[in-house]
Write a structure and sequence with these properties.
about 700 residues, alpha/beta, Rossmann fold, D-amino Acid Aminotransferase, Chain A, domain 1, 4 domains, seven-stranded mixed beta sheet, seven-stranded antiparallel beta sheet, about 20% strand
């Protein structure tokens, strides 16, 4: 990272100003200066229009220049075209402004060298002066807490935010302000922060600012990507330390532009997997759909820590109750049955054609007996098995509105949470604003998103209860020096299999024994010394994918088979790569059957060393069953990677097959992660494929290491 994130104090004058200057202020309707002044109509501080053309703009005195102002403004909004910007930024710095918001476009986003250079100059001015700059190419920022709306965008008008405020941060300005329109239905928004081209202040700085801002309860972020994503992780760590939930929707998740890598690992360890892994380790709440961002953030703004994993469902529709059960199962949210005492209460208030179970269907009879649903809700809230109640709202009408207050009050009384799932298609019908503003009720327009949020709520609490992360090294302290010497001594960028396995062995990863031979007779002698059956493989730095090149022969049980395999391997090597350098043929013992595991690693240009585990040997890319983490990992984290695989049952003993020693396997994953972390300056990628695992033995039968070239 080139710098640490700006903390709250560094951005406080800019983002919570008492005074704002608008350079380029104008009475011309539709101009950026006029639109900005209009948006500041409710601002609680001092406003200074700056434009040499006017003495007044509306009822405000207009100043000819920034240095003519009676005070150093906390924030300056520059609304003028690009050509005038740089000297104006210098003037703001000279005036000791608290910070700058810069609208002008036509900088690095054009990809023109001279425009990139101009943006870099602005960044240098901001960094050297300590006057933070948001932009260029920025739509602006809004602080609803004091109505500092420094933007030319159309602005959703908010009533005074209530306690459950969500701060919005978006690398897309338009999407950020689109999310802010949630205020129109009653959601509480504290800030809308965008960053444009992020010449200086970026999304990571804004996350760190809101993490320490008492007016923001939860941060909702639309995130595209960063050249230095570890700065975002630094900001996320600040939010985690103060227990402020950070909800992120990551856009630009396609891997279409990824560079093909030498190993299987390269195709498995995409940058989006790295982002997700880094986010999860930092405690970020990830949503996979934009539609889930504000709903999930509002839920976390209102929800206390869960008191239990169980969730109760109270519906007036049997169909809605079934929908809830389906999504609960999908997201792993338990719906335990109520205690006998609670069930007795339910049975006393629910007709026999309803359901006094969980999910609970009170039926449409609630219209005749409106108090019954509250009585049932109170009984369920009192049950220690439940931390939250879901109430599907299947119809938007006035009789349902009192239930919103009833369930919110009950949740507050019992220290729990209520989720109102808006099943009806009247999206803004009666009850929406009441549900948004209810202190202990979250509104969802999707049963799926509701249970996804509940599952994330439980995961976050489990994460917070874990002991602090402590790295205890599994591999030998001298492993790095030994491995670095082996890599340095290699003649080629791609280490041959024997060399790669020597590096693995230095880290305590067991590897198959072998002999290198240069004739059919030598191959036969080696086979008898090792003991039939054997495997034969080419050794060539130019043929890293041996199976694809058809230069591997397995389970050779006779002399004739060994001789024939030797000749076939050399012939296929010549046919596939006529100019390939061939060092010889490897003779190895056959390893007994077991589960084939891949352990891979690569050094990502954004995140640094990554570790990947997967199942399937050569089929791993087809199966797409892999898990990734930033390296190094702890033993427990290695266990977690293995448990997250879709085929994890294979490791546990599937259909009578013996189970794999997962403690030992996790140990080897940890060792490989230490290898790539130690040697991140020396290697690009690593493949251990396959590692054959059984109950009492684990052994790497093939390996690939790509060394970093001097130009990398």
């Amino acid at each position: 990272m080139t710098r640490s994130v700006y903390r709250h104090a560094a951005l406080a004058r800019l983002l919570h100003p008492a005074s704002i200057a608008i350079i380029g202020a104008s009475p011309t309707p539709g101009s950026f200066g006029a639109r900005t002044l209009g948006n500041l109509a409710r601002f609680q501080g001092r406003i200074y229009p700056v434009n040499a053309k006017y003495r007044n703009v509306g009822e405000l005195t207009c100043y000819p220049s920034i240095d003519a102002l009676p005070e150093a403004p906390d924030a300056v909004v520059i609304t003028t075209p690009r050509e005038s910007v740089e000297p104006l930024v210098q003037a703001c710095i000279a005036k000791n402004a608290g910070g700058i918001v810069l609208y002008a476009s036509g900088y690095a986003e054009t990809a023109k060298p001279e425009r990139i250079a101009a943006q870099l100059r602005l960044a240098a001015l901001a960094r050297e002066s300590g006057v933070p700059l948001i932009g260029p190419n920025c739509i602006g920022v809004v602080n609803y807490l004091n109505d500092a709306a420094m933007t030319f965008s159309g602005l959703p008008r908010s009533a005074q935010p209530h306690a459950a405020t969500v701060g919005i941060i978006s690398q897309s300005g338009a999407l950020g302000f689109a999310m802010a329109q949630a205020v129109e239905r009653g959601m509480a928004i504290s800030h809308v922060l965008t960053a444009g081209n992020s010449a200086d202040v970026d999304v990571a700085d804004q996350v760190a600012y809101l993490a320490d801002d008492p007016g923001c309860k939860v941060i909702a972020c639309i995130f595209e990507g960063m050249a230095q994503p570890l700065r975002f992780i630094e900001a996320a760590a600040i939010a985690w330390r103060v227990n402020k939930p950070l909800v992120v929707y990551k856009v630009a998740t396609s891997e279409q532009g990824a560079t093909a890598a030498m190993s299987h690992t390269g195709s498995l360890a995409g940058s989006q997997m790295a982002y997700r892994s880094a986010f999860e380790r930092a405690g970020v709440i990830i949503v996979d759909h934009c539609e889930a961002l504000m709903e999930t953030a509002a839920f976390f703004a209102k929800a206390p820590a869960p008191t239990a994993r169980g969730v109760a469902v109270v519906a007036t529709s049997g169909g809605a109750a079934i929908m809830a059960a389906d999504q609960a199962e999908r997201h792993g949210v338990p719906l335990p049955q109520p205690s006998a005492a609670v069930r007795a209460v339910l049975e006393a208030h629910i007709p026999e054609f309803g359901s006094a179970r969980n999910p609970c269907d009170v039926t449409a009879q609630v219209l005749a007996n409106p108090q019954s649903i509250g009585v049932c809700g109170d009984a369920l809230m009192s049950d220690a098995a439940y931390g939250a109640i879901v109430i599907p709202q299947v119809y938007s009408y006035d009789p349902a509105i009192p239930r919103i207050k009833t369930f919110s009050d009950l949740a507050e009384q019992h220290g729990k949470m209520t989720c109102n799932v808006w099943v009806t298609e009247w999206l803004e019908g009666p009850g929406v604003r009441e549900a948004e503003r209810a202190p202990r009720m979250a509104l969802f327009r999707s049963m799926d998103r509701c249970f996804a949020a509940l599952a994330a709520w439980h995961r976050r609490e489990e994460h917070r209860r874990r002991p602090p992360r402590v790295l205890r090294r599994a591999s030998d302290a001298n492993a790095k020096d030994t491995a670095a010497a082996l890599i340095s001594a290699a003649k080629h960028t791609t280490l041959v299999e024997r060399q790669a396995k020597q590096v693995l062995a230095a880290y305590g990863i067991p590897v198959v024994a072998e002999r290198i031979v240069h004739s059919p007779d030598a191959a036969l002698r080696a086979a008898h010394e090792i003991g039939l059956p054997v495997a034969l493989k080419i050794e060539s730095p130019d043929l890293p994918h041996k199976t694809e090149a058809d230069v591997v022969r397995l389970n050779l049980r006779t002399d004739a088979a060994v001789r024939a395999a030797y000749d076939e391997i050399l012939s296929n090597a010549q046919r596939n790569a006529p100019r390939a350098k061939v060092d010889g043929v490897l003779v190895q013992p056959m390893i007994g059957a077991g589960v084939e595991v891949i352990i891979g690693a690569r050094v990502d240009p954004l995140f640094g060393p990554l570790i990947v585990v997967g199942l399937g040997g050569i089929l791993v890319e087809v199966m797409q069953d892999s898990a990734l983490a930033l390296a190094p990992v702890t033993h427990d984290e290695a266990h977690g990677l293995l448990a997250s695989l879709k085929g994890a049952a294979l490791l546990q003993g599937f259909r009578g097959r013996p189970a794999v020693d997962q403690d030992r396997l996790a140990d080897l994953v940890q060792r490989a992660s230490e290898l790539v972390a130690d040697l991140a300056d020396a290697i690009v990628e690593l493949d251990v494929n396959p590692l054959i695992c059984s109950t009492d033995r684990m052994v790497a039968v093939d390996a690939l290491i790509v060394r970093r070239s001097p130009n990398d």
